[in-house]
Amino acid sequence: MKHRRPTNKSKITDSMLDASPSSAPASLSVSNNEFFDLARRGGSINPFRKAPSSLNSFQDMEANPGDKDDSYNYALLIALYTLQGIPIGLSASIPFLIQQKVKLVAEAAASTSASTAASAAAETVANVAANIASSKSHADIAKIAYNAQAIFALCSWPFSLKLLWAPIVDSIFWSKFGRRKSWLVPVQMLAGFIMIGGSNYVEEQLGLSDPVAAAGAAAAAAGAFDVKGVTAFFFILYFLMATQDIAVDGWALTMLSKKNRGKGPVCNSIGQNLGYFMAFVGFLALNDPGSSDKLWRPLFGLKPDPTKGLVSLGGFIKFMGMIMIALTTFVAIFKKEDGTGSGTKPIDANANANNDKDKDNGVMNVFQQKQKQSTKATADDDDAEMDASEIGLRETYHRLWEVCKLPAVRWLFIILLTNRLPTALSDKVKFLKAVEFGMSKQTTALLAPTIILPLGIAVPIIATKVFKGHPLKQFMTAYKLRVTLVPLLDVLMLLAVRAFHASTDKSSSAIFWAAVIGSTALFSIVDSMQFNAQMVFFAHRVDPAIGGTYMTLLNTAANLGSTWPASIVMYMVGQLSVSPTCSMMDEVEKCEGGVEAYFPLQLVLSILGVTWIYFMGNKVMQLAGLPDDAWRTHLSEDEDEEDIEQNKRGKRRGKKGM
User: d(Cα 607, Cα 142) in Å, to the nearest integer?
Assistant: First the structure.
């Protein structure tokens, strides 16, 4: 079959992007209920579906008496998404451990420079001590830390690139074992074994098993903190979890009954957050020596040990790997994958043709065949979405390429790939800098469940009601705050942390906590608003013919836009820091001069963000006003017309032959 380009009458040119946003049709409004309904179909839109009578999807979710039918499936999906969140949470805790390790290098060097210990390890650290004491200042140590952070930030790239192999996961599988299990089981098993086998390696690379010796060895060997091995370890885990995410997202559509399929994204959110907080907040709390000695050991009746935490990084990774293998084994043995009861089984055109074999002298009219498929899809309240396993890898990638050539999509890519650079310091560096200034990493971790998580749940619900189906207006409102007020509160927070983190005075503590809570809360609000607006807009604009793949394409662009600035800004913070001049006076080290790169860099990025709003803000609103045709390739319509025309020509030739 030939794949034709969209006809001229259906093409959307770049000039159409200059249309006024006020020209947007009324159909652009998306209710909260529609978002869940779109999400359950992987982001596709059913043109035959009538608008729901209820405007509150959360009420609809609670009022359905058939919800209990999928209780075990809900639990399984949450468990699978929890496994996905564990490596992500662990990787979020590594940057704090990196900073802790760099501090250990400096402290070990300083404390060992005057030592005359004869052991080889002590001599190694002493050599490093002399080097650091003579040439390394606080800014130099910070530079080492942020260079390491810039490298480690690369480990999350697989989630931004999973579109490259998503069609392979969708189209290649062992049908006897299950379409999704064919990938889910081996991927999770491999991830579990890697976590068990590599747990000690990660701990050794970070120097947490023997801090003093490892710190000296690391600094002596490289002159800097080398995290390439740890980055490779987590890069592999991210790749496996990105593949697992593709499989679980697809399985959720067939595992849940049709009426409950809209709750798949809810399971995703709950599960990923559970895994993330378990591996991030839980690990940092149990790994902290102070918290373990004051709280956890007395709670469990264990002997006090102020020198180390209740759990080690290696032990925690190994335990989580065991849980992953145990759950994967349970799924492989006891959970059967059956898509027949879910209403999402692909329509088999060949089977339909064989059933109607006697019709029209053994040849079924192509138009009638496609009309039957469309009727079946309408009756099942599902979109006739093309499936990668039906159309093949080549055609799937061809359709993706046609989507990428749409002018509207190209402009959306530019917006998604550029809007997060001005916010990168707040996104990636702020809390690391707060820890550097004296805030404990445990305090930083506890902000997540107490502030970030509740706001992440409440803000999308409230924002949907306030902006009433105008997602890009919501997006721009949040972005304006994100590049102006959020950086201001971040700077105030860091200044408060540096000045009052060790203060016991009540007024100083009040200023400290007010600054920390205010900065964290506003950032969480605007971040949730932007993410919610982004997902609603994506779901409302995708082409129904390739809805799931289209959504993956847009999400990939969004993930990539938030990933690539991280390494750049961390590297810049390290490189632009200027070392102060230090001297010893009355046995006290006093430092003068120097530049903390975070603050001037934040000013530059805020100006860049305001500039982005000036040049790209109108373009964002113009995208909101484009009609649905601007986002669709019309390939399926062209192919239907071509098939019908070819069939007519075939019939005419048949009549002439008679």
Answer: 25
- pLDDT tens for 365-413 read 433 444 444 444 434 444 444 566 667 778 878 888 888 999 999 999 9
Report CA-CA distances (Å) from 362 to 76, 536, 646, 650, 656: 46, 46, 17, 14, 18
Q: Which residue has the tokens 């929890």?
A: 82
Facing residues of 25 across strands? none
| The one-letter amino acid at 142 | A
Report residue 321 as tokens: 């790997």
Gap between the Cα atoms of 640 and 369, Å rounded: 11
Contact at 8 Å (CB) between 568 and 605?
A: no
pLDDT given for residue 594 in this prediction: 72
With a CB cutoff of 8 Å and minimum separation 6, the contacts of 98 are: 145, 148, 149, 152, 206, 225, 227
Mean pLDDT, 10 residues at a time, the chain of 658 residues? 42 49 38 35 33 37 50 89 90 82 60 45 44 49 78 88 85 86 94 93 76 45 65 94 88 79 74 85 82 81 83 91 94 77 38 42 42 42 53 80 92 96 92 84 76 83 86 94 96 92 84 93 92 84 71 86 90 81 66 81 96 95 91 67 55 54
Query: Using CA atoms, how far apart are residues 534 and 530, in angstroms rounded to an integer?
Result: 6
Q: Are 56 and 35 in contact (CB under 8 A)?
A: no
Assessment of whether the complete model's pTM goes beyond 0.90: no
DSSP string across 605-653: HHHHHHHHHHHHHHHHHHHHTS-GGGG---HHHHHHHHHHHHHHHHHHH
- The answer to whether the beta carbons of residues 167 and 398 sit under 8 Å apart is no
Q: What is the DSSP string of 366-402?
A: HHHHHHHHHHHHHHTT------HHHHHHHHHHHHHHH
CA atoms within 13 A on the CB side of 456: 15
Spatial CB neighbours of 293, under 8 Å, sequence gap ≥ 6: 304, 305, 306
> Token pair for residue 102?
């760099």
Tokens of 443: 């305090």
Give the span between the Cα atoms of 251 and 248, in whole angstroms: 5
Helix axes 228-255, 264-277, angle to 10 degrees: 150
Task: Calculate the alpha carbon distances from 359 to 353, 355, 376 in Å.
Answer: 9, 9, 19
Would you say 386 and 546 are in contact if contact means Cβ atoms under 8 Å apart? yes
Tracing tokens 């009433």 back to the chain, one arrives at 468
